[in-house]
Amino acid sequence: MAVCCEDNEHDPNAKSVEEALDIILAASEPVVESEWLCLDNALDRVLARDVLATQPIPAWPNSAMDGYALRSSDGDSPRRIIGRAFAGRPFLGQVGPGEAVRIMTGAVVPADCDSVIPQEQCAANDDILQLHAPVRPGANIRGIGEDLAAGELALPAGTLLRPSQLGVLASLGRSEVEVFRRLRVAFFSTGDELQPLGRPLQAGEIYDSNRHSLLALLRRLGVEAIDFGRIDDDPDRIAATLQQAAKVADLVLTSGGVSVGDADYVAELLQNLGSVQFWKMNMKPGRPLAYGRIGTADFFGLPGNPVSTIVTFYQFVAPALRKRMGCRAPWVAPRLRLPCATALRKKPGRTDFQRGRLVASAEGLQVAPVKAQSSHILTGMAQAECFMVLPAEAGDLPAGTLVEVQLLEGLV
Ligand code: AMP
Ligand code: MG
Fold first, then answer.
1. Ligand 1 and 319: CB distance under 6 A
2. Is the peptide bond before 61 cis (omega within 30 degrees of 0)?
3. Closest to 315 measured CA to CA, from 325, 302, 328, 306
4. CATH number of 17-33+182-324
5. What is the pTM of this model?
6. What is the pLDDT of residues 100-158, one digit of tens each?
7. Does 286 sit in the ligand 1 pocket, CB within 6 Å?
8. N or C: fewer beta carbons within 10 Å in the chain?
9. CATH assignment of 336-407?
10. Any ligand 1 atom below 6 A from CB of 254
């Protein structure tokens, strides 16, 4: 790895964050195969076809309030209440001049009525209704097709199905939905020092936390995660596992062993078994990040430092997965601009993804760095609510500088 001077960390052989993302997205082909699923099993899946409304929603004019349905042409004069309309139990009679119908929210508005007066704006005594507010035509009536007209595009192909989108499909009566097949993502950790959870540690050993963070990140994205476990720093074993993983998965992820230490084999193996697009990034944390292909699988060799693993996943793997899953753009979490509550330390040369928290202040929302910014301190990541994205060329920044912020929940 190129040596960086004290006050500029730029490495001419490393890809910039923007360049790397362009390369990754250009190479990420959306899946084409689809399957039909029950609506309730389709959370976090991606719609494979446009869904049009087969009927208008609402299908009938209905009341937005509990109150009385009446004819606005009768003006403000008292009305005679001649019946009741409930949601699902319409009033079937006719409503003549000077008449009104007691109506509940969601009940069909009788054809002769063109206004609903809320019950708080009138008083009923026996069957006589006195109005305390003017009657406006169309008031408190939800019109036919206000939500969706018949034939209108309800959800386009490529929509990520979250709870509200599933609600829209249900409102159309769709019990099944065609979604893209799930992506298969194989992943494993490399490192002699890594131990499975629950086993006592000997000197120098640590628990394999990355595999658990990665599994959770993959689950959040709704892909099929295939865990190949932890593999020793043994090039033959890593090579065999890479090949096995690339056969069963659309995308392979590894953590660790991607740098230039004596036990770092991943980038070299990628070169031998497939092709390398790049393996160094001008970012902090996460400088070593190998990207390429093995067989038909995309490959990301993520750095082993636990914060770097999560940051690089969020910045590169998640957008690639979103695109490959068939999601419509944008694949990258939007950035907000917020003033920083404290001064920020940074050396020019690399894009820095500092971990931050949102702070409510008298001047409005601000962002502050978490205390521990080192790439091996996972609790710093765990305290964070956002990344503060500091551009490569920036140096130290005074308090109050507007910085770009990506919310963690915005993507994963
Ligand atoms: P490496 O990228 O293999 O050079 O690892 C960089 C640092 O991350 C080292 O301190 C490793 O012990 C640590 N590390 C690597 N893999 C993992 C893992 N799966 N879980 C936790 N820490 C890891
Ligand atoms: Mg290692």
1. no
2. no
3. 302
4. 3.40.980.10
5. 0.93
6. 999 999 999 999 999 999 999 999 999 999 999 999 999 999 999 999 999 999 999 99
7. no
8. N
9. 2.40.340.10
10. no
